[in-house]
Amino acid sequence: MKPDYTAWRHVFKLDPDKSIDDAALEQVCRSGTDAVVVGGSSGITYDNTAELLARVRAYEVACALELSDAEAAVPGFDLYLLPVVLNTPDGDWITGLHQKALRHYADRLDWERIVPEGYVILNPRSMAARVSGARKPADAGDLRAFALLADRIFRMPIFYVEYSGAWGDMAWVREAKAGLNEARLFYGGGIRTPEQAEEAAAAADTIVVGNLIYENLPLALATVPGKRKRIETRDNEWYR
Ligand code: 1GP
């Protein structure tokens, strides 16, 4: 069944290029998160993506692939999220790679399962920014204009505020959200405590937790709504 991503409040993002043991994966998949998204900015191959999908498939949780390289377009995911980087001058990341991929794969696509994401990458040091050549918006108003572009002009269903690896400015996220009529706002980047998860969830529609899964699993699990108050998870270096 096609999952309803418009109801997602919390998502775990797993990187096929990073290792996660079976016990940890089980905890992620049974955590109560709304979905597992498979994706990353480097080292993504067909094989490591297919392997991770097969392991996640042992559980009932919805599983989506965030597709940044057509070579890794593994069939069998519930949804395919297609990032379109809005804040890069490099056309490859806006239409170029997508058009090339469609030339070869269009016949095999289940269009119902493809969801474009208007991406704005705000952490210049992230791999995603380096790979795509994304330029950080000058201010919150600039970000809001990208939100308008995604929502009103391109009519993308998801606007993704991506701080990958760094905690973002929630005032900026709120400003972007104010620019959206229809699109859902996904926020990802630097969520390392239940409190940050709560703050981000208040500003965005859907929050994405990535690195923390690999850095401190108990704390990552505590970012899932309904589990954020479990204080026994707070004895760690990231807790503020
Ligand atoms: C990365 O937005 C996600 O694509 C999550 O970011 O890894 O910093 O949690 P973190």
Bound molecules: SN-glycerol-1-phosphate
The residue-averaged pLDDT reads: 93
H/I helix tally: 9
Which bin fits the share of residues in helices? 25-40%
Give start-end ranges of low-pLDDT stretches: 230-240
Distance between the termini: 40 Å
The CATH H-level superfamily is FMN-linked oxidoreductases
- CATH C-level category: Alpha Beta
How would you describe this structure to a colleague?
The chain has 240 residues and is an alpha/beta fold. It has a single domain, classed as FMN-linked oxidoreductases (TIM Barrel, Alpha-Beta Barrel), CATH 3.20.20.390. It has helices spanning 22-29, 46-56, 96-105, 127-132, 140-153, 170-178, 194-203, 212-215, 217-221; strands spanning 10-14, 35-38, 62-66, 79-85, 114-121, 158-162, 184-188, 206-209. Strands 1-2-3-4-5-6-7-8 form an eight-stranded parallel beta barrel, surrounded by four helices. The protein starts with 9 loop residues before the first strand and ends in a 19-residue tail after the last helix. Residues 230-240 have low confidence and may be disordered. SN-glycerol-1-phosphate binds next to strand 8. SN-glycerol-1-phosphate binds at residues 13, 162, 164-165, 188-191, 208-212.
